[in-house]
Amino acid sequence: MFYREAGDFKTSYQDDNQTFPIKFDRYRYYFVLFVAFAIIPFMINDYWVNAVFLPFLIYTIAAIGLNILTGYCGQVSLGTGGFMAVGAYAVYKLMTLFPEVNVLIHIVLAGVVTAGVGVLFGLPSLRIKGFYLAVATLAAQFFLVWMFNRVPWFYNYSASGQISAPERTFLGEVITGPETEAWAAYLVCLVFVTLSAILARNLTRGSLGRKWMAIRDMDIAAEIIGVNPLGAKLSAFAISSFFVGVSGALFFAVYLGAVEVGEVFGINKSFLVLFMIIIGGLGSIFGSFAGAAFLVLLPVFLKNVLVGGLGWPTDLAAHLEFMIVGGLIIVFLIAEPHGLAQLWRVTKEKLRLWPFPH
Amino acid sequence: MLDQEKGYVTVDGRQIGGTVMDMRNITLRFGGVTAIKDISFDIREGEIRAIIGPNGAGKSSMLNVISGFYVPQEGEVFFRGQKRAPMRPYEVARQGIARTFQNIALFEGMSVLDNVMTGRLTQMKAGILSQALWRGKAEKEEVENREICEKVIDFLEIQHIRKTPVARLPYGLKKRVELARALASEPKLLLLDEPMAGMNVEEKEDMSRFILDVNDEFGTTIALIEHDMGVVMDLSDRVVVMDYGRKIGDGTPDEVRNNQEVIDAYLGVTHD
Amino acid sequence: MPDQLIYAMEVFLNGLMAGVLYALVALGFVLIYKASGIFNYAQGVMALFSAMTLVGLMEGQVPFSHLINAILGTQVHHFGWHLPAVLGILLTMAVMVALAWLVQVVIFRHLVNQEPIILFMATIGLAYFMEGFGDLMWGSEIKKLDVGLPQGINLWIDETTFNIFDYGFFIDNLDIVATIIAALLVGVLVAFSQYTKQGRAMRAVADDHQAALSVGVSLSFIWVMVWSVAGFVALVAGVMWGTKSGVQFSLSLIALKALPVLMLGGFTSIPGAIVGGLIIGVGEKLFEFAIGPIIGGATENWFAYVLALVFLVFRPQGLFGDKIIERV
Prior knowledge:
The complex is a heterotrimer.
Chain A: H1 13-16, H2 23-43, H3 46-72, H4 80-97, H5 103-122, H6 130-150, E1 163-164, E2 169-170, E3 173-174, H7 182-205, H8 207-224, H9 229-256, E4 258-259, H10 261-264, H11 267-280, H12 285-309, H13 314-335, H14 339-353
Antiparallel strand pairs in A: 1-4, 2-3
Helix pairs in contact in A: 2-7, 3-7, 3-8, 3-9, 3-11, 3-12, 4-5, 4-6, 4-9, 5-9, 7-9, 8-9, 11-12, 12-13, 12-14
Chain B: E1 8-9, E2 15-16, E3 19-30, E4 33-44, E5 48-52, H1 59-66, E6 74-79, E7 82-83, H2 89-94, E8 97-99, H3 112-118, H4 128-133, H5 137-155, H6 171-184, E9 189-193, H7 201-218, E10 221-225, H8 229-235, E11 238-243, E12 246-251, H9 253-257, H10 260-267
Parallel strand pairs in B: 5-10, 5-11, 8-9, 9-10
Antiparallel strand pairs in B: 1-2, 3-4, 3-6, 6-7, 11-12
Helix pairs in contact in B: 3-6, 5-6
Chain C: H1 3-36, H2 43-59, H3 65-72, H4 85-107, H5 116-138, H6 155-165, H7 173-195, H8 197-207, H9 209-214, H10 219-245, H11 253-265, H12 270-290, H13 292-295, H14 303-314
Helix pairs in contact in C: 1-7, 1-8, 1-10, 1-11, 1-12, 2-4, 2-5, 2-10, 4-10, 7-8, 7-10, 8-10, 11-12, 11-14, 12-14
């Protein structure tokens, strides 16, 4: 009864097109933004930032990116790890080649570079579909990781092959490198997430989003009614890779600080982000948040309960984590293929009627 | 009397114009199978042209040739006086040809409104940046095209389901939504592939009414494939009859009804 | 004959052998895909799990020993017996059949009408689950597998090639055995699918589930059978690879290698899996041999995929796959 639309009539198409047509939702959204921007930075500490918030925020951006490509446009990609690596190495090269330019600009540029690479590896999607395309994106994944490992220019000829983020500041505050304060790293990522979500939401509800979904649902019919499949697919690859690249850049520069490409951006990363959008909900911006939150919190939870609480060895906890994640994927696919986002939608539907049954 | 080039006015006052689509000597082969053998016919502006024939005659293939999905090995297609250059199906759609499909081809992941809005995709031109910021051209375009779609939704009486996911709709409503999507693009030529298939008498009457209204109010040229002879004879101005890839009849419904070859191949006779 | 050419011949032969092993894993994929339209990403993990189970049974390991020890504070690890290889293989096969039945009942029965991509993602979930489960059950350390297969350099070939080329080819006995077994397996599978009642039923199911149901074929039974056969193929692959490089996590990565094999050969063709495997096996090794040193080595990580990708662009259905006809 407190969550309702009664009396809230939309009198223009503009209003009808809003992201949050129900007042309650809108206020909730503002409230969450307020807490995120104004309250959390003052309460945060290193552990929470590194274990929970930074990975959650950064993976959300990656999940939004993959969701655009796979959830909205239907092109399955197993190359997310490789594209995150492109973002990381692009921002690294930019930071080291142009140290005077603001690192935030470099992060955006890294996204643009990744978009270009994404278009390149997306070209086969015009001829190849479905599983075949998924395997083709594996080519991107393995080739990119190999390239960043073997071509010394990418890691500035360092002996270890690792790349480390040099220290950079913004408005006088350190935001990359080991001296970064928790709240500064958090705010940087939060700003990027908020902007990414808004941009993605706008793109997916407009004509570009409809083109993507038409290609996903029935690409032949889409072409017959006037959608250029080349443009739609490549734009999906480009925009998706932009977001994935930005997340890779943030992952390296703000979160980890130093990266060895094989471990960090390998095929497991690609699967992780894919699981996030499946569990969270394909074709849903909210689902990207939900899936990222779930898969970041689960290992933290398991570690605290099993290792911290019950004293089990860590490898046992890791095995269980695999089983739980795998099992949950299956459970979700059977019971709710549209993921947590759908569960949320159904809950809201029921709430709209509460306390009445129908 | 009839003037083949300049057009005429029908008995009920509709304006039939000159030739809008001209198929000349179309031959279409799939490997060893010849689906269409040297067929020529034309479609005039503003008319309702039926394509009929037994199953396997090549009618859907002909529709696919018209909409650009199949490219004939021989023959030429002239649309609005211009020969069609080799082009992709989406370019054909942009010229103003819309269609519905025999087995419904709606986008099952979207709502009715979104499906109808996809019909406007050829007209929506706002750039990516404008869309990403949801300002200026993109927002205005969205509202303008929404208005056009709402008119179509109104016309086909599907307002009550506009936000429903298409996957949940019964068959008859899906067919109507598909028609709405085709109409939303304001086509010069509308192709309907068995629009009455699987419908009961009332649904057929509704659909017939919609088809006639579309032709009457918007002046849209319509070509339809249909098996229900009653519908064909009542609705169409002219009929093309196909059998085994050849054309065996072409004329008004009355002319075709009395054509012996057509009777032998398809219509049959009543027995006492 | 110039030296490089001789070395290349050796690399070629080794590539063929590697290709056979890839083909073995790819076969499991093809079987399941043909019968159910499911692309079983978990095939590699099944190979790993079967190998682990085999070792565990043969060595008399206590299943879930780490877990039991963690909960109960005990220190059990082994029952103390050792099983002969043949018995171990039979028991492992029984385990794989049970696994096939479970997978069918718990997972795929509930996903019958879903789109292929959902089924594929379910198998990814299954792969992760089985990996954790396998590690939990038998432990994740590397194990040595020895079922009595001949290993080590084949001396006859070494001598003969030395006499002809002045250079002895190193061809492992194990690889020769693997080739023979794979060839036998393919022959048996093809015969089974073409000439037996069950095989015909399987092909009917692969063509059209509804039609197969309407003539009285039990979908569940066929799928359990198919997954069991795939499990058997996984076991053979697991034994081969496990003997060669030890039973460890990287075995499951073989599945990833099978993917380009399938892309080349087509997802629905048994001979395609073989031919694709050979092409990838040879191609990889020759490329690394010829061009690897110039561009930094370790090209085997990605070459197979790029090769398959390039091939697919020109022939999207693979060499032998069913031509993809799109109708509207």
